[in-house]
Design goal:
The structure is a single chain. Helix content is 39%, strand content 10%. The protein is of the alpha/beta class and 375 residues long. The protein is built from 13 helices and eight strands. Strand 3, helix 5 and strand 4 form a beta-alpha-beta unit.
Length: 375
């Protein structure tokens, strides 16, 4: 009997109940907001501030003139997350600490800013300037004021040279834990125009976080613009499938063997089925892909991580556990999507009847290992 077992036996014999071990929670999808564009003004030159006021942002998207979220939920936000003075949710640190970090006992929150980041703006110089401004705003408004918050390096990913410069500007700063891209790029994400970003990420030991949405100029559907919001939001999983397929088959992970990619807010129930299909066709079509030395599923298993929200919730009681097993219990990270309306409470997102070891891994331990964070 080892010392730990002996002590446990003594406690039990004395009739004293040992306190449960603290459950580490790392949320891999927290969306900070700005009160308004003035929040990024201090980080923009006079030229680019005037440009923003005069021309605004001009992303590649046919329907960007309208809000992509339903009107009953502005910005897709929780109603109880709005400030008492009408401020947008997640724009005030005090409110975030009280309503989110403390309330849900979050140890770390990985930030994924969506606006105003300038990613994929048609003016590449402005895209780079706004990405830089957003990164400085993350530091000053969030990460230096609460060590639980970890920033994501925003990159103007349609300009690989500018993206690498932005990555190198912040690499080594513990305020940042990853690089943020969006799933709908102007070309499939495995194309070589994006490879300098992956080279920098691998070289500097930073994961690439790929969040859904993005302004590619193309509809999420393969056959045109959808009619309903439900089609739009359900299409995120197919966009993630396209990301995985392109990066694997183009040879990204063969070239950058230590690159880590995290897919955020696309669910994960589709991943194992995709790898089965890729492996099946690879057997008969591998002559087209001499640059791949392994089956597609092997690259996915070593280089891809997924997040829980929005987790698929099958009716069959054991189906979710099987999905976790097929995906890999060490490749799934918890995400809440705070402050959005479909936020997942960490106490409820992973069923209580799950294997406690698996539950601990998903809620925090996997992310601690991936991002090199201390419990």
């Amino acid at each position: 009997m080892n010392i730990h077992q002996n002590q446990t036996t003594k406690v039990a014999a004395a009739g004293v109940r040992a306190a449960p071990a603290k459950l580490t929670i790392v949320d891999c999808d927290f969306h900070p907001n700005v009160r308004g564009l003035e929040d990024v003004k201090p980080y923009l030159s006079a030229r680019w501030w005037e440009h923003l006021q005069t021309y605004g942002q001009r992303p590649r998207h046919g329907f960007i003139g309208t809000d992509p979220y339903p009107k009953m939920s502005p910005g897709a936000n929780r109603r109880d997350a709005w400030g008492s003075d009408g401020d947008w949710p997640a724009c005030d640190l005090d409110m975030v600490q009280h309503h989110y970090l403390d309330a849900y006992k979050i140890d770390y929150a990985m930030m994924t800013p969506l606006q105003p980041t300038g990613q994929a703006d048609q003016n590449l110089d402005f895209s780079a300037a706004l990405a830089t401004a957003c990164n400085m705003w993350q530091i000053d408004a969030w990460t230096t004021r609460d060590p639980r918050l970890k920033g994501a390096i925003i990159v103007p990913y349609e300009d690989a040279v500018a993206s690498v410069a932005e990555i190198e500007r912040h690499a080594g700063n513990p305020d940042f834990s990853q690089i943020l891209m969006l799933a709908r790029t102007s070309e499939p994400m495995g194309r070589r125009r994006y490879w300098p970003i992956y080279e920098a990420a691998e070289r500097l030991g930073l994961p690439i976080a790929v969040h859904v949405f993005g302004y590619s100029g193309y509809p999420v559907s393969g056959i045109g613009w959808p009619s309903y919001y439900l089609e739009e939001t359900s299409g995120h999983s197919t966009a993630c499938q396209a990301v995985v397929t392109s990066m694997v088959l183009e040879g990204v992970f063969e070239r950058f063997k230590n690159l880590k990619v995290v897919l955020i807010e696309g669910g994960f129930g589709w991943l194992h089925a995709l790898t089965w299909r890729l492996d099946r066709h690879f057997e008969s079509l591998r002559v087209e892909l001499p640059h791949l030395t392994r089956r597609p599923s092997e690259y996915v298993r070593e280089n891809i991580w997924v997040t829980t929200q929005p987790v698929e919730e099958p009716d069959m009681p054991n189906a979710l556990a099987e999905m976790v097993e097929w995906t890999g219990e060490d490749r799934i990270l918890f995400s809440s999507d705070y402050p959005h309306w479909d936020f997942d409470d960490p106490a409820l997102a992973i069923p209580q009847n799950f294997d406690p070891v698996v539950r601990r891994k998903i809620l925090g331990e996997n992310a601690l290992k991936l991002y090199g964070l201390k419990a």
